[in-house]
Amino acid sequence: MAENYDLVIVGGGTGGYVAAIRAAQNGWRTAIVEREKLGGTCLHRGCIPSKALLRSAEVLRTANGAAEFGVRTEAVSLDFEAVQKRKQSVVDTLYQGVQGLMKKGKIDIYYGIGRILGPSIFSPTPGTVSVELPEGENEMLIGSNVLIATGSSPRPLPGLAFDGTHVLSSDNALSLEALPSSIIIIGGGVIGIEWTSMLVDFGVSVTVVEYGERILPNEDEDISAEMMRQLEKRGVTFHLNARFDSESVNKQENGVTALAEVNGEPLSLEAEKLLVSVGRVANIEGMGLENTDIVVKNGCIAVNEWYQTKESHIYAIGDCIGGMQLAHVASHEGLLAVAHMTRDFHEPLDYATVPSCIYSFPESSSVGFTEAQAKEAGHSVKVGKFPFQAIGKALVQGEAEGFVKLIADSDNDDLLGVHIIGAHATDLISEAALAKVVDAAHFEIAETIHPHPTLSEIIGEAALAVDRRAIHM
Asked: Is 450 among the residues known to form the active site?
């Protein structure tokens, strides 16, 4: 049996279901093929559950520091089983919401494994999606347009498979029933640093092993240095310029041992658990891409600026195309792809306007160029930097560490990048992102009245600092 649709989406994660909603709003008959649960990695194994755990870590940290605010607490302790139950409750609530949105949009959901077929009796062009249903039957979905939104999975180290017991992926870590006493985290990128922050707050002894010269290699160097400084102050051990020997991992009943080389010197490592956080790999295997002219480059689906593949009626978005592997990016890419399908033309996405966030403590966020990237791109730069220590609301909240760094072009005053580390950085970045979208100059941010006392004042002060005109420093 074959069903005809205006749009068939393979993958019901954030990018896929947002695209489905927009297509349905345009009156298109739309279907989603999902092999597990709607919401995908972000809802079930990424953004939401990890941030729920980070929130519990924040509450514990606040409770332990309550005496600083004149609040006396007795016998503060962590109930990790309750932490996990709360996390799952948040996920379940949002999952019900996504299911409700699908019903509202009259979007058909097929739970099973989707594979793209070549030209066949169903269609003269590639793109019919064969869905292997759980009961073993197959359903054929013929879409005038197809959108691939299959996401990504944690990347294992060569020769070291995830076992869920000793060697963990971030997916495995979310399902821990009890906290380990100690953990080695391989990789100091965003995911690794979020887990580092969370676990050290939960009382776990954390060691981070990073291949590069610094943690958070994609962030501004000043941000990386400040993040490492604050995490070290809380007890985290870092080994940079490290070559981890995955073949040396020895699993024992009570933990793991391994070897690494740091700046040419041997290092023995020992912990109860090993968490590997070295990036993610696109989920494109076994889905029939070989039946089409779709090009795969560096393990990801190649697309143009409108997310079309080599097959013009087949689009792809999100982690499976590489680039900025962020849920909000996948959603926006999905909206733009549907707009292109429906001839509702927009401007292509300018990735320089996309904010990125790290939900550790301290939080960090950024938009646009780092200082090094701006110089590499040929800009003559001027920099404004302002500390939270000089912001009244930060002192009131007891979170006065960190800063805002604003980078502008010294020739034309264009705003090139904004980087924040400190209290509520992930909320504050939206002002900077809007400034990038509307092409505001740094002095226009400075002239914007920021209410007092608020944390947002630091954005205005950093903008003033670009021209050495900050008021409170």
From this structure: no
